[in-house]
Amino acid sequence: MKLNRRTLNIALASATLSSLLPATAFAQKKPVLGFAQVGAESEWRTANTESIKSAAKEAGIELKFSDAQQKQENQIKAIRSYIAQKVDVIAFSPVVESGWDTVLLEAKAAKIPVVLTDRSVNTKDDSLYVTFMGSDFVEEGRKAGRWLVEKEKGNAGPINIVELQGTVGSAPAIDRKKGFEEIIKADPKFKIIRSQTGDFTRAKGKEVMEAFLKAEGKKINVLYAHNDDMAIGAIQAIEEAGMKPAQDIIIISIDAVKGAFEAMMAGKLNVSVECSPLLGPQLMAAVADIKAGKPLPKRILTKEGIFPMEVAKAEFPNRKY
Ligand code: AHR
Question: I need a surface site. Which of 12, 183, 228, 281 has the fewest CB within 10 A?
């Protein structure tokens, strides 16, 4: 082959460059995922974060992670910084349902695909995200309601319920309330006598339950908590008030984290509806599919069960979070 002076110079320049750079610089670039997490408000959330971090490592995906401390403005800031950094994919679990259109339009304009994990957004434009993966929160509320209806069969009532709601405006708080009410409203003996947010945390769950007990005392028959952490906080309040949790007051909660299993095995919690936080592997598979240009279903649903206290001991060794 005949080389002229110009091609020879180019060949020499690139040979010098390749001998200076490490071999990995020429390997395929790792996909970069920017993930804006809600916070660290519950045992569930800690397991979710761990699942995302370990799955990213395993899949060889570079993860940029931020914790919004349960504040929407912090999540929006994080998403904007991922846009500025030109990551390949943005994923987030929206702390509340509404108020996302502007920042999602910015991501769309920058041609960065967005994946919603765990919680969805309230938008008319579903082209603003590629897919939403996570639980059916309305169904979780229904499962909790059905369990109670079955348990109280034959009891003429009235059955007074207090409800600890999740974060105000969040998808799980809205949907779990809706699903539960949809089931219990079929029988007027069930009455929600108090309902207030405990923000998905143990401390708030305890504080609000103390207030419920002060106001309603022995009238309370059932506690429905939108997550296990709030139920565990409330159990403490019930014990401090000299009552027996799961006996004097029936306790129903959602998540099925290890802490709930421990409470069930100790006879202090009646039932927990499963909500799986182990979304990491699914999310990394979605990132790989997006990078490969493969289409994804708009909704990826998590399969879940329900665990009454009677099965807690046998199930506990199988629990992963
Ligand atoms: O969005 C999932 C909910 O958020 C979990 O049920 C709760 O524990 C968490 O904080």
Answer: 12
**314 alpha carbon to ligand 1 midpoint, in Å?**
25
- Number of domains the chain is built from: 2
Q: Cα(227) to centroid of ligand 1, in Å?
A: 6
- Residue 141 sits in the same domain as residue 267: yes
- Are 47 and 104 members of one domain? yes
Residue among 41, 42, 97, 167 whose CB has most ligand 1 atoms within 8 A, to mutate: 42
pTM of the model as a whole: 0.90
- Contact between 253 and 261 under an 8 Å Cβ cutoff? The reply is no
Identify the CA nearest to 232 among candidates 276, 275, 264, 197. 264
Q: Classify 158 as helix, strand or coil.
A: coil
Q: How far is 291 from 158, CA to CA, in rounded Å?
A: 56
Average pLDDT along the chain, 321 residues, taken 10 residues at a time? 45 41 57 98 98 98 98 98 98 97 98 98 96 98 98 96 98 98 98 98 98 97 98 98 98 98 98 98 97 96 96 96 96
Both 84 and 160 in one domain: the answer is no
Q: Please give the number of the atom of ligand 1 that sits closest to the Cα of 43.
A: 8
Structural domain boundaries enclosing 74: 29-134+277-302
- Same domain for 225 and 293: no
Residues 147 and 247 in one domain: yes
- What atom of ligand 1 comes closest to residue 44's alpha carbon? 8
Nearest Cα to Cα of residue 178 among 213, 149, 137: 137
Residue 26: its pLDDT value, please? 44
Joined together, the tokens standing for residue 159 give 């059955």
Residues 6+ apart with CB under 8 A from 8: none
